[in-house]
Design a protein that fits this description.
alpha/beta, 7-stranded parallel beta sheet, two-stranded parallel sheet, Rossmann fold, 355 residues
């Protein structure tokens, strides 16, 4: 799927031949106001497909409706029924999740990432949805000890987000194993470190580097595996059209290119922005301890702390993944290099006055 940057073009694009079967489908995307869900939504709308968005807040739904789109509010932590929202839907992309809301306790994470995701899958089956593509995360493998990690690498979730995403992934797959052989198709997508136009999470790293305020925590020799947003969207579409025998009950690690060290990543961002970075490195221990104390201090007030352990993990955990299964089973062929993707990301940040 070589429809480069179609999700951000605002123009009607040509639906790839391998996805032509989607023309007659109604497609629902949860988390359509987020980075990944939003990119998928715009790509499918750009193809002229019949797409329904679900978002967390009423104002987000109203904004999409004002643009002529179909949108509903769907909160994965809510006890309400979602039967009406899924009526007539053929394909569900479940992208929604509770992510960096570290000020909340485990119960809400469980409701959203585990129990809510499972409830959505079960509701989809009752509404005769044909295919359920669940977005998990390579983070369920944590600080990988097997490099590169495959889909069979032992789980090693490191925090509440990854632990509840793992619980959701396992619950959905275990439930799906007992569905009829000709019933709903269930498949799992595990994105790596997704970035590109529209992303605000990695923007903090870009901004620190390009403003010359970045200092490496630790050695910088741990591995990172990036996934450009357009490649990530391609992988979802391939899972939506692949034969049942290729995707049902299957998990796919998704990334672009090869793993690189954090030192290399920082160097690529600095080079693309025309700046030089400091060679100073901060010891991990004091930063980790500070982040832990921040979490403890801010939690009683329900406020997100300025620093938390999950962010420190970015500098200490190896992330390197084997994507050969996606290539073999789906025909996935990532086409964005780190250099290309980083340039596109910087271009978007500047356009939006975020740098």
């Amino acid at each position: 799927m070589k429809d480069r940057d179609s999700s951000n073009s605002g123009q009607l694009n040509v639906l790839p031949k391998e996805s032509s079967c989607l023309r007659d489908k109604t497609i629902l995307i949860t988390g359509a106001a987020g980075f990944i869900g939003g990119a998928l939504f715009r790509r499918l709308i750009g193809y002229g497909l019949n797409v329904i968005a679900t978002v967390l807040y009423p104002e987000e739904a109203e904004a999409l409706r004002a643009q002529g789109h179909k949108a509903f509010v769907l909160d994965l932590t809510a006890d309400e029924s979602w039967e009406d929202i899924l009526k007539g839907v053929h394909i569900v992309f479940n992208i929604a999740a509770m992510f960096q809301e570290v000020e909340f306790g485990r119960e809400l994470y469980e409701k959203a990432n585990h129990l809510g995701a499972l409830k959505l899958a079960k509701t989809a089956e009752r509404r005769h949805v044909e295919r359920f593509i669940h977005c998990s995360t390579v983070g369920v493998l944590g600080d990988v000890k097997e490099i590169p990690a495959t889909e069979k690498t032992p789980y090693n979730p490191m925090d509440i987000y990854h632990k509840t995403k793992l619980a959701g992934e396992l619950a959905i797959l275990n439930w799906a194993k007992n569905r009829p052989n000709n019933g709903i198709i269930v498949t799992v997508n595990r994105p790596a470190m997704v970035y590109g136009p529209g992303d605000l999470r990695m923007m903090k790293l870009f901004k620190a580097i390009l403003s010359k305020r970045f200092m490496m925590i630790g050695s910088g020799e741990v591995l990172a595996h990036l996934g450009y947003i357009e490649d990530q969207v391609d992988s979802f579409l391939l899972q939506a059209v692949a034969p049942r025998e290729s995707v049902h009950l299957e998990i796919f690690n998704i990334a672009s290119g090869e793993p690189i060290t954090l030192n290399k990543l920082v160097s690529l961002i600095a080079e693309a922005g025309g700046v030089k970075t400091s060679r100073l490195k901060i010891p991990v221990g004091p930063v980790w301890l500070t982040s832990y104390i921040c979490e403890l201090l801010f939690k009683p007030f329900g406020v997100k702390p300025p620093l938390f352990r999950r962010r420190v993990g970015f500098f200490t955990h190896n992330r390197a993944f084997d994507i050969s299964k996606a290539k073999s089973y789906l025909g996935y062929n990532p086409s964005w290099s780190e250099k290309e993707g980083i340039l596109k990301a910087i271009e978007w940040y500047k356009k939006e006055n975020l740098l």
